[in-house]
Design goal:
By secondary structure, the chain is α+β, with helices and mostly antiparallel strands. The protein has 2 domains: about 180 residues, no CATH class; about 60 residues, 2-Layer Sandwich (Trypsin Inhibitor V, Chain A). About 20% of the residues lie in helices and about 25% in strands. It is built from 5 helices and 11 strands. The strands form 2 sheets. The chain has a 7-stranded antiparallel β-sheet, with helices on both faces. A 4-stranded mixed β-sheet has the order 9-8-10-11.
C-alpha cells in the first residue's frame, strides 16, 4: 500500500521526539500536524516577572509593527526571532493569523478543551532550521526544515504548540493573514503546492537515493541531470510559475516531479 504525502510527513514527525525545539520549557510529548512535526511547548515568550525558563528581552531597535485591530506585534516577532535563533536561522519572514484554540487545534491536530481561547498562529521562514539541541534516539537525525510554526496565547503570549517542517502551511483558512515582517511567502507557497500537487498524492521519498532538498534551487536542466545521475525513473514539471501543467495520472515510485518558479525548483516529490 502506498502512503500519501500527508502520511509520510506524519511518519517523519513521529520518528523523533525533540523537546528542545523551541527551548528548555518545551514539554516532551510530540504532536503531529497535517504536515510536518508539531510539538507541545511551554512558555516561548515571558516577562521577566514570570516564572518561565525562557525570557525574551525586547531588542533596542523596537519594530513599529501593529497587529490588525490594534496591539503591538513585538511579542510575536520576539517569539519568532527566538525560535529561529534556537534552530540556527533567522526569522526573515514572519506571518501570523489570529484565531481560536479550537480552530488551531483542528489545524495542528492538537486536541484542546478551551476551544474559544484566542491564539495567534505564527509561521517563520527564510532560513533552513535545524534543531541541533534536540534529544533524539540513536541514529536519528535532528529535526530540520525551512518553516517554523508556533501557537501562542493572545492573553499572555505563552506558546502552547510548535513545529519544524520541510513544507509550509497555508494559514489563510484560519483567518486574516498578516505579514509582520517580510512577506506571506510560506502560506503563498503552501497554497501553490496544494494547488499543483495536492497533499493526498502518494509520495515515495523513503529510499535514500532521493533527497528532495537537493533539487531545490536548481534549474529544470540541472534537476534533470541530477535525476539521471541518481537513477531516477524520469522527471516532469507539474507546475510552472503558478500554472498547473497537464500530466498523466499514473503513479511511478521513482519519477521526480517538480514545481518551478522563475525557472528554479521550489518543490520536488516522487509519484
Amino acid at each position: 500500500m502506498t502512503e500519501t504525502l500527508r502520511e509520510a510527513l506524519h511518519r517523519e514527525a513521529n520518528a523523533v521526539s525533540p523537546p528542545e525545539l523551541f527551548g528548555p520549557a518545551l514539554r516532551s510529548r510530540p504532536r503531529t500536524a497535517r504536515r510536518g512535526c508539531w510539538l507541545a511547548l511551554g512558555a516561548v515568550v515571558a516577562t521577566a516577572a514570570a516564572a518561565a525558563v525562557l525570557v525574551v528581552t525586547l531588542p533596542t531597535s523596537h519594530e513599529s509593527v501593529r497587529l490588525p485591530g490594534g496591539g503591538d506585534a513585538q511579542p510575536l516577532l520576539d517569539a519568532a526571532d527566538q525560535a529561529a535563533e534556537r534552530n540556527g536561522g533567522k526569522a526573515v519572514n514572519v506571518e501570523a493569523v489570529k484565531t481560536t484554540r479550537g480552530a488551531a487545534g483542528d489545524f495542528t491536530g492538537h486536541p484542546t478543551t478551551n476551544t474559544e481561547e484566542v491564539v495567534w498562529v505564527v509561521q517563520v521562514s527564510g532560513s533552513h532550521y535545524v534543531c541541533g539541541a534536540c534529544s533524539m534516539p540513536p541514529g536519528a537525525t535532528a529535526p530540520r526544515g525551512d518553516y517554523l510554526t508556533m501557537v501562542l496565547r493572545a492573553s499572555d503570549w505563552q506558546g502552547t504548540d510548535g513545529g519544524i517542517s520541510p513544507q509550509p502551511f497555508d494559514l489563510r483558512p484560519l483567518g486574516d493573514l498578516t505579514a509582520l515582517r517580510g512577506t506571506t511567502v510560506a502560506s503563498d507557497r503552501a497554497a501553490l503546492i496544494d494547488r499543483c500537487v495536492g497533499h493526498e498524492h502518494p509520495d515515495y521519498t523513503t529510499p535514500p537515493s532521493f533527497a528532495p532538498a537537493d533539487y531545490l534551487g536548481l534549474t529544470e536542466s540541472e534537476a534533470a541531470t541530477l535525476a539521471t545521475q541518481r537513477g531516477q525513473g524520469g522527471l516532469r514539471v507539474v507546475c510552472r510559475d503558478g500554472e498547473a501543467l497537464a500530466r498523466t495520472s499514473d503513479l511511478r515510485p521513482t519519477r521526480v516531479n517538480l514545481i518551478l518558479e522563475d525557472g528554479k525548483v521550489i518543490w520536488a516529490g516522487r509519484f
